[in-house]
Amino acid sequence: MPVGVCAFAKINIGLKIGSRRADGFHPLRTVYQTITLHDRMRVDLARGTGVEIRCKDQRVPDDESNTCWRIAERVMKALKVRGRVVIHVEKTLPVRGGMGGASSNAIATLLALERLLGQQLAPEERLRIAAEVGSDLPLFLIGGTVLGLGRGEEVYPLPDLPELNCVVATSEIAVSTSQAFADWDSQEQEKYGKGQAAGRLTATTASDKLSGFSRAVFAWLGGSSTGVPAKGSGDRAEALLLDLVRAGIENDFENVVFPQHPELRAVKRALEREGAAYASLSGSGSSVYGLFKSADSAKTAANRLNAEGISAVATKTLTKREYWKKIWA
Question: Is the full-model pTM beyond 0.85?
Answer without folding.
Answer: yes
